[in-house]
Amino acid sequence: MLSTIFKAAFLIVGLNVIAASAQTSNIFDSNFVKPRCRVIIDNDFSGDPDGLFQLVHHLLSPSVDIRAVIGSHLNARDGFDNSKTQADNAAKQALEIIRLVKPSSNIPVIAGSNTAMINDSTPVKSEAVQFIIKEAMRADTKSPLYVVCGAGLTEIASAVLTQPEIAKKITLIWIGGPEYLDLAFPPPNYSSPEYNLNIDINAAKVVFNKSSISLWQVPRNAYRQCLLSYAQLLYNIKSKGEVGKYLAGKIEAIMNRIGKFGLNIGETYVMGDSPLVLLTALQSSFEADPSSSRYVIKLAPRINDRGDYEFNDKGRNIRVYDWLDTNLMFSDFFAKLSLFSR
Description:
CATH topology: Inosine-uridine Nucleoside N-ribohydrolase, Chain A
Number of domains: 1
CATH superfamily: Ribonucleoside hydrolase-like
Structural class: alpha/beta
Helix content: 40-55%
CATH class: Alpha Beta
Strand order of the largest sheet: 3-2-1-4-5-6-12-9
Radius of gyration: 21 Å
CATH architecture: Alpha-Beta Complex
Number of helices: 12
Shape: globular
Strand content: 15-25%
Distance between the termini: 35 Å
Largest sheet: 8 strands, mixed
């Protein structure tokens, strides 16, 4: 009798394990979720580690077809990486992440320019610029193309200057720019120019002042909403396998480094690049759009030489996000990382 009960119990447990295993694999199985948009990821992966979290999240999102990952430069005096090879270093960091998450992937990883544009009329020349142009000009797909930038705009600005026709074929999602004062006030002791805009002011001038590219902007007041607590980092990320440990280690290294200078950043960290995933992979099922977040339509301002906004009555309409669904964004990342770690 006991033997029969134990056999039945083991059978039930076994079936539950099989069911759990099947459920775990579903999100990564193309039979359940298929790509519905193309994405080129452009970020300064040798800088603030928030871009590494964004890259992992995108790699774990089966609804996007990642066409390439571009490593971009920082401001020449940036404390994260003040070398002369910032874009090369960024590409190496991106490649390290891809090897952790998708070791058999053939996603191209390309180093962008290691320097900013010299003015707002002369594009940089790089393999990354050529890739953006080539992908935008494809005629064999109707899948929408998003270029998502979590740093400066050097590559996309140079691509538009080199081949203006691509502007009508791309949606640019950019994390950067200061607050619009009719929507929000700057934080205490704010930096000016804003961090990402200051990486390449000339590139921002091209995108805002000269191009017609469709732009979804996530300015500072919006990306600062993306706060991850240290408790969440430990519970939902560090405990989730090799990838989770890797990501948590990057943040803890920053916390340790900052602490040596006597600075206390508290128990949160801004994952300011993660909206790039929210606004692409996590769009609504029908009438696809980032429907859980809020934006306003504004005339694109003119960017001046200081990196400030100036009113431009001839500016095109752009989306400016002022509220982000961080609950969906972080919950989805935690769930995907947990499923992947199993």
